[in-house]
Amino acid sequence: KNEVEQSPQNLTAQEGEFITINCSYSVGISALHWLQQHPGGGIVSLFMLSSGKKKHGRLIATINIQEKHSSLHITASHPRDSAVYICAARETSGSRLTFGEGTQLTVNP
Amino acid sequence: KAGVTQTPRYLIKTRGQQVTLSCSPISGHRSVSWYQQTPGQGLQFLFEYFSETQRNKGNFPGRFSGRQFSNSRSEMNVSTLELGDSALYLCASSLAGGPSEQFFGPGTRLTVL
User: Fold this and answer.
1) How far apart are CA B45 and CA A95, in angstroms?
2) CB-CB under 8 Å, A95 with B98
3) Rounded to an integer, what distance in angstroms lies between the CA atom of residue B76 and that of residue B61?
4) Contact B99/A45, CB-based, under 8 Å?
5) Is the Cβ of A3 closer than 8 Å to some Cβ of chain B?
6) From the centroid of its chain, how far is CA B84?
7) How would you write the pLDDT of chain B (113 residues) with one tens digit per residue?
8) Using the beta-carbon criterion (under 8 Å), do B99 and A96 form an inter-chain contact?
């Protein structure tokens, strides 16, 4: 069992749909990161969470520390949101990041 | 403010050779982390440097090494290259390391033939 698991692995949506990507982790963490990777490899940090909820534009990230679970929501999805979304747990025992396998999101017009 | 830069962007080497990759962090950032991304293993942590000291290391063989200079620029070196070392190597910088936001560079795509 991976220390960080994401679901679903692949997600196809129609423009305008509400999207949820889930992340579960088994290690103790000091923070949970959500990253976005576009074709070509560039990675952008979307959120860093240690508790509660954060919102940036159409993106919302939540975390439940007791349940060791985080979700990334995209409201009113758009084709430009098509990318791989990766969650990463920063362990309390050190500074390393452990990554989920990523969710390939495709938003069709 | 300029972002994280990595050089070279693309590299082709043959088995047995060694390679050095470079990462220049955002000005003022003192922590640099390195990651390897492959289709089979996904993203994996290599090591983190802070103020010229290695703070953490992932589960990679000793062929993978790195260092950080006084200006926070970092290099990673892979010796005796193997086919399986073909990957995208990403570095990320942050202000202080630990639980702080990381800013990623564009990566170096290494192909080992």
Assistant:
1) 10
2) yes
3) 13
4) no
5) no
6) 16
7) 679 999 999 999 999 999 999 999 999 999 999 999 998 889 999 999 999 999 889 999 999 999 999 999 999 999 999 999 999 999 999 987 666 788 999 999 999 99
8) no
d(CA B77, CA B65): 5
Per CB distance under 8 Å, which residues of B are interface residues toward A?
Answer: 31, 33, 35, 37, 42-45, 48, 55-56, 58, 88, 90, 92, 97-104, 106-107, 109
d(CA B52, CA B54) in angstroms, rounded, equals: 7
For the segment A52-104, what is each residue's pLDDT rounded down to a tens digit?
999 999 999 999 999 999 999 999 999 999 999 999 998 886 678 899 999 99
Q: What stretch of H or E contains A24?
A: strand A19-25
**In Å, how far is B57's CA from the nearest CA of chain A?**
8
* Secondary structure of chain B as H, E, C letters: CCCCEEECCEEEECCCCCEEEEEECCCCCCEEEEEEEECCCEEEEEEEEECCEEEEECCCCCCEEEEECCCCCEEEEECCCCHHHCEEEEEEEECCCCCCCCEECCCEEEEEC
